[in-house]
Design goal:
There is one protein chain. By secondary structure, this protein is α/β, with parallel strands linked by helices. The chain has a single domain, classed as Immunoglobulin-like, CATH 2.60.40. The protein has 3 helices and 8 strands; from the N terminus they run H-E-E-E-H-E-H-E-E-E-E. A 5-stranded mixed sheet has the order 2-8-7-4-5, with no helix packed on it. A 3-stranded mixed sheet has the order 1-3-6, with no helix packed on it. About 25% of the residues are buried.
């Protein structure tokens, strides 16, 4: 009977511990000299207080020619954020300063470089409609993916 109790306790502990895995709170995304992220969808756990995204530019071209960033916004805001980013220009990393529609954004990077951003999920809605994308001019139309916050 004691063995059965211990096995049950261990199984319960394992089940409770699973939803808070670090892998649900940290992501690595790659992009190269082609207009494509290497992931199409990211799902983070609502149990995370923050999410960290690391962007690796695995290509060879520099940031002025084929720069990439990782920007998160509501899907309904993507076009506006990308348009305002182009107007803001390279000096601002193609992200309008103080843009409240931007949930998170990395710096623009070129071949061989990496950058990270960490952001709170407190204001995100479980099941909300979010998109990550690149705001380098012309990239946002094809460099997109879905971001989901799971319960």
């Amino acid at each position: 009977m004691k063995i059965m109790f211990r096995i049950t306790a261990l199984l319960f502990a394992a089940a409770v511990a699973q939803p808070v895995l670090a892998a649900d709170c940290e992501f690595t995304v790659g992009a190269g000299d082609l207009l494509k992220f290497d992931v199409a969808e990211m799902s983070a756990s609502a149990a995370c207080s923050t999410v960290k995204v690391t962007l690796n530019h695995v290509g060879n071209l520099n940031a002025q020619v084929m720069g990439h960033n990782w920007v998160l916004a509501k899907t309904s805001d993507v076009q506006g954020v990308a348009g305002d980013g182009m107007t803001a220009g390279a000096a601002s990393g193609y992200v309008k300063s103080g843009d409240a529609r931007v949930i998170a954004a990395t710096a623009i990077i070129g071949g061989g470089e990496s950058t990270s951003v960490e952001f709170s999920v407190a204001d995100l809605v479980v099941g909300g409609d979010y998109t990550f994308f690149c705001t380098f001019p012309g990239h946002s139309f094809v460099m997109q993916g879905k971001f989901k916050l799971d319960a």
